[in-house]
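Kindly review this record before class:
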Amino acid sequence: MLVEYDGTRYHGFQWQAGVPTIQDELERAIGRICERSGRVMGASRTDAGVHAKGQVVSFWTNSSLEAATLVRAMNYYLPSDISVRAGYKSNDDFNVRRDASNREYRYYILNRPTRSPFSQRFALFSPGRLDVEAMREGCRLLEGEHDFASFVPSLDDGRSTWRTVYDARVVEEGDFIVFRVVGNSFLPRQIRNMVGLLMRLGSGKMDLGDFRAIMEARCRGLAGPSSRACGLWLTRVNYPRSLGEGM
């Protein structure tokens, strides 16, 4: 299923005891429709407060409902800040996370002197003018295969911090500066720390040499502080082959 959500009131995608999560809401809705079903898996485990327009999830069920009917039923039971855009029957061997070739995110920054009530849940407000060209120079350093240890929290959970960024760019859209990044996968808070460092570069608080030194230091937490979660959107998950029927 292709899912979109306003992540403001959720503690991320993945289920956690005692707090609202996207996975929990999806499984509750499925449980009201299907007699038997499995856990919902997401292509990306978005953090607390992060939004999505292109999250892909999968689950198994013994329901005989057509995919389109199941989508309508899901949207009936889901809260208003979560919506299923489309559903498909996948191949039996499809794995929503491992089969993804890359993931695309965008981070929105409202860069003007005054805030807007219409974007405060979905973009970071930054009144000081940012140097977009300087931020673009930083983006070029982010591209490629790197050890992104400096861009993740100091807590070491044992996972590799090497990731590949296929494309990183900054564009201007009216009053917004938008950071777009495509990678094979991302570490917790990696993108928000990338944005935080790019904003320090764009505000003149550091130069490109400082930016490069932080990257090359490979020291956990060095690129912080993280930018706020409200500006981050999972926009698309790409797959190298068809997901199944209807694609």
